[in-house]
Amino acid sequence: MSRRRHLRPAAVASAAAVVLALGLTGTAHAAAPATTPGSAARADDPDQPENPLYDAPEGFRVDSGREAVALSWSTLSAATAYEVHRAEAEGTGPDEVGPFELLATVPTGSYADDSADPDVAYAYKVRALDGAGHVSPYTESLRGTRDTVAPFAPRDLTRARQDERGVTLTWRTGDSDSVKYVLYRAESPSAPRVKVGSTTSLTFRDTKGEPGLTYSYEVRGVDAVGNESEASNSVTGTRTVTAATAPKAPSVGSARLVGKRLTLSWSQSPYVPVSSYTVYRSKTSPVDTSDPANRLATTAGKEYTATVGEDGRDYSYAVVATSQHSVRSPASASVRPTYTEPRPPGATYVHDVAPGAGSVRLGWSAVPYGSDESRVTGYRVYRSTSPHLTKENAEFTEVTSGTEYVDRGLTGGTKYYYAVAALNEDGLESALSPEVSATPTS
């Protein structure tokens, strides 16, 4: 019958002094040396005359882990190598071990045993060698385990309190070998869990949750080598919103500057009601929102547009939300708008030409513009008595803010040619509309 004994978590923890998993992987293992003449003498007689290795290596330590059992010891000045021996541990007593076998020979004062069977207790001992064939006494044997058994899950997670300072949770150990507990929360039962903290006690207060947002919580136990248990039951909790609660900082999603046209837009958490937003700017970043000189504007919406000066590209912008109880949020991240050279507006077309007595009435379509384009501010009407009208050969122009124009004082019986161009706030002009003509009556 095999001497291997698979341990429950409590037995694993008591098998040896353990620490958190060291994450040691890929450690090179020296091969066990072949038997050579004199090796039996070395093994049987560490007290041979003039043996410089008269003491065993000191500070021998065995640390259990998930991926490997980590061994370490103090090196001896006379030693050139160290033999690591391993035996299966059948019980907790010092004599309850199987026969020791040579596991590896290494040149340094450490070794990671990643070949150990999972969850089997082993005893380890080490001795030193030198180039002349001398050996030291063995260290005392110590025990370690490549522990992969997770603790039992904590039980009876309970929301003990929720107020404006946070959500306080308590739970029971689950009769496990956990040495600490990790708290997770999610914005809904089906949303991804996010780690919010850890503790060695059986209580935790989440002070960093967003006020007004109901979270789903769970707790997991972690043993000394880092194995994490299954989740406890889940509970919900909400940090209370009061008149003194500050809104969350706005999140600026878009900042654009097209020519002189600035457009900012942002999003805001809905859990603390907001009455207004204040936009700040400065030529340094981050923007100092405590300086009244940096205040640019206040708006009730989540967007701000304005025409700025020639130096508009030199500024960074930030937004602060104010609650219905006049409590200010932290400032948003400071952003510098992306700049786009202004473009001329699109062309229009004349859809209505009506000659009258000494007059011609024109009507045309308004030119649309997008959020990344400068605003259309008006239209310029061009006129000539010759066909093939261009901006250069026009005999008359007139600017209007509307989409209709009546040209008066014309000579009856004379044919007139017209075209219209759109204008934007950057002073740029579109191409001409297709040419139209009309002959007023006398």
Polypeptide structure, described:
It contains two helices and 28 strands. The chain is an all-beta fold and 442 residues long. The longest helix has 7 residues. The N terminus is likely disordered.
Tags for this entry?
single chain, 442 residues, mainly beta, 28 strands, 39% strand, elongated, disordered N terminus
Quick recap:
The protein is mainly β and 442 residues long. The chain is built from 2 helices and 28 strands.
Count of DSSP H/I helices: 2
Euclidean distance between termini CA atoms: 123 Å
Global structural class: mainly beta
Overall average residue pLDDT: 88
Task: Give the overall silhouette.
Answer: elongated
Question: Uncertain spans, ≥5 residues at pLDDT below 50?
Answer: 1-43
**Count of strand segments:** 28
Following the backbone from N to C, one meets helices and strands in this order, namely HHEEEEEEEEEEEEEEEEEEEEEEEEEEEE
User: Which quaternary structure do these chains form?
Assistant: single chain
- Strand line-up of the largest beta sheet: 4-3-6-7
Q: What would you report as the Rg, rounded to the nearest angstrom?
A: 41 Å
Give a short account of the largest sheet.
4 strands, antiparallel
Q: Kindly state the percentage of residues in helix.
A: under 10%
